[in-house]
Amino acid sequence: MKKIIITGGAGFIGSHVVRRFVTTYPDYQIINLDNLTYAGNLANLRDVEDRPNYRFVKGDITDAQFIDGLFTAEQPDAVIHLAAESHVDRSISNPIDFVLTNVVGTVVLLNAARKHWQGAYPAHRFYHVSTDEVYGALGDTGMFTEETKYDPHSPYSASKASSDHFVRAYHDTYGIDTVISNCSNNYGSHHFPEKLIPLAINNIKGNKPVPVYGKGENVRDWLWVEDHARAIDVIFHKAASGETYNIGGHNEWKNIDLIRLLCNIMDRKLGRAAGESAKLITFVKDRAGHDLRYAIDATKLKRDLGWEPSLQFEEGLEKTVDWYLANEEWLQDVTSGHYQQYYEEQYTSR
Ligand SMILES: NC(=O)c1ccc[n+]([C@@H]2O[C@H](COP(=O)([O-])OP(=O)(O)OC[C@H]3O[C@@H](n4cnc5c(N)ncnc54)[C@H](O)[C@@H]3O)[C@@H](O)[C@H]2O)c1
After folding, report:
1. CATH of the domain at 276
2. Strands across the sheet with 54-58, in order?
3. Do 265 and 140 reside in the same domain of the chain?
4. How remote is the CA of residue 7 from the centroid of ligand 1, in Å?
5. Same structural domain for residues 124 and 206?
6. From the CA of 209, how far away is ligand 1's center (Å)?
């Protein structure tokens, strides 16, 4: 029996990780610890919320007293840490929130692990989920490996880089069993519609302009979110203590090419004339400090632990569009802020 706290389980990737662990390991107890910020939505987990091995705890990872109390009460064997402020644009307008949640929140969790745990995996493990953005930007060639020097450019990536350093410092200084993974951009169901792909799907559907930064030349390496959750599962169970793994899709797309592909799929799905949705593409002023290209070399993960992506991008994108078109209510609730109001009423008075 293992008891695992998964932080940020109500968010996009966290909900896929929670679902995977709850359904794949019925003998594990999974505690989803999430503060339900604008990005957290328990509707993401409706299909598993009644499972006997799943529980939701509302709480803030920056609240040291609360986290210490939770460790005392629950005695977790492991933490899989995904809770974060995750949107680069928001980090540019409000960097302090990113320092608090991503840096201070991570250190608060590490401190609790330090205080309450003795013994390395399989007794205890702190798994930190991070991003390829800590490595900075690439030119036209090359890929990020686990040895690439950290060179973050946005307040978001700087905060994630800082949290990665703290995780390594707690491993080296206090001997806590830690693993870190740095993943490329994810796509799939339950993605909050402020991010590129769900925003574009939502706007195309509503016949609204589809904003594309600059000339759409920025290149990202896209990974199906369920493949990320599977990689986390593999790394959590098999990686040696102190290890770092890059996770990526070997799937580089210029933003503008991706949006054009999405427009074609949407034309087909919505019965529109070919080329109609692409008329909605609107180029907007580029994001400050916008990294040109990210590309992940995930060779180490394949070589050591046998993981590789399962889906071709076109197939994954079709599935994603199908999910958004079939889950209109989810999208409406998220965009109208209904679900936030609901959770405020549900939880603030308790
Ligand atoms: N989205 C990507 O493409 C991507 C790629 C690589 C790595 N990551 C990393 O994966 C993790 C999850 O990303 P995501 O896209 O699912 O993010 P998200 O924004 O969808 O979800 C974040 C979750 O964390 C919760 N949260 C935020 N602040 C909290 C706090 N103080 N206490 C408790 N919970 C809090 C939110 O309520 C939300 O449920 C992040 O650490 C992110 O850096 C994301």
Report:
1. 3.90.25.10
2. 54-58, 28-34, 2-7, 78-81, 125-131, 178-183, 244-247
3. no
4. 9
5. no
6. 27
> Residue 107 falls within a domain, yes or no?
yes
pLDDT digits (tens, 9 = 90+) for 101-140: 999 999 999 999 999 998 888 889 999 999 999 999 999 9
Q: What tokens were used for 66?
A: 């609360």
Which residues are part of the catalytic machinery?
132-133, 156
Residue 293 domain-assigned? no
**Residue 57 belongs to domain spanning:** 3-187+222-247
296 in a structural domain: no
Specify the pLDDT at position 349: 43
More confident residue, 203 or 342: 203
- Ligand 1 binding pocket (C-beta < 6 A) is 7-8, 10-14, 34-37, 39-40, 60-62, 82-86, 101, 105, 129, 131, 160, 183, 185-186, 192
Q: If you write DSSP's letter for every residue of 242-277 in order, what string do you get?
A: T-EEEE--S-EEEHHHHHHHHHHHHHHHHTPPTTTG
